[in-house]
Each structure stands twice: as C-alpha cells, then as structure tokens.
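Homework help thread (please don't just give me the answer)

Our assignment gives two proteins as sequence + structure token strings and asks us to describe the second one. The first is just a warm-up. Here they are:
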Amino acid sequence: MIEGRTYPLKVNEEDAASMLKIVEEVNESLKSLHVSYPQKDRQDCMAMALLTYAVKLYESRADSLSPDIQEKLEVMDRLLDEVVL
C-alpha cells in the first residue's frame, strides 16, 4: 500500500522483504513531502518523490554514464530543486 492505495505486484519470495522496505521508505518520503509542502496535493508529492528516486537512481549509475548524460541529469536535478523549493 502506498498512500493508502493497494498496488498488487507479483514479487519473488526472496524479494518480498526488500519490497516491503521500499514501500515503507516511499510512504515515509511522501509523508515528509506532505509535511514540508502542505500546499501541494498528493499527486504533486507523488511526482516529486518519483523524480527524487529517479535522480538518485541515475546518480548511482553516474560512474558508467557519458558526460552528456551526466550533464542532462544535473539539469534535471536543478529543475527538481526549483520545483520543490
């Protein structure tokens, strides 16, 4: 459950514990965004959380990315910062 809604997923048994931790982290992130930005609706907070996770994922892969892609990710990160602030 994320944001009180159920999203059924087929997960391998060995991945179930990790998935539950991810769901918990996502819900905590959303709760924090709701508190930090009460003027934003739930969809805006979901989008901000998604973009935050996407940036983190790309940053973790940055070592294997070309300089061009790294630059684009930095631009995306700055844009995300502008939306959040």
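The one we have to describe:
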Amino acid sequence: MPTILKEGSYRFFFYSDEGDPREPPHVHVTSSEKLAKFWLQPVALASSKRLRAYEIRRVTQLVERHQARFLEAWHAHFDS
C-alpha cells in the first residue's frame, strides 16, 4: 500500500493489488476512519465512506492540485 502523499490528516495511497483487470488510474485517501476513492482522469469522486461534503470538496481540491504527481506515481508503480 504505497503512500504517495500526506497532507494534513489525509493520506493518499494505492493498493498494490488493484485487481485484474486493473481499474483506470485512481487514488485512495484516508483520514482516521474516513475513506474515499478518486478517479484521476478526469478527477472525480468514485466512492466515499464517512466523509462530510466539505471534506469531499477539500480532498477533491487536493487531488486536482496533485493530479500530475498521482498519475506519475500510478504509472511508475503499475507499469513497471
């Protein structure tokens, strides 16, 4: 489960075993007992558990800001 970014209380990561066939590029984010999944192309919320609307907006902004970094990390991890 490689962590690719920590910002505030949020940790952004991939699961190393993303299934077969692998889903399109995405990132998971957690904070305490909260969890969300975001598609990266285009950035869109895929799912969330226990995040409030304002937290989803905040995390969406973070994913948009770091989209290029997340995509680079995704391809480095899964395409090698």
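TA reply:
I won't write it for you, but here's a hint about the kind of observation we're looking for: Helices lie at 53-65, 67-78.
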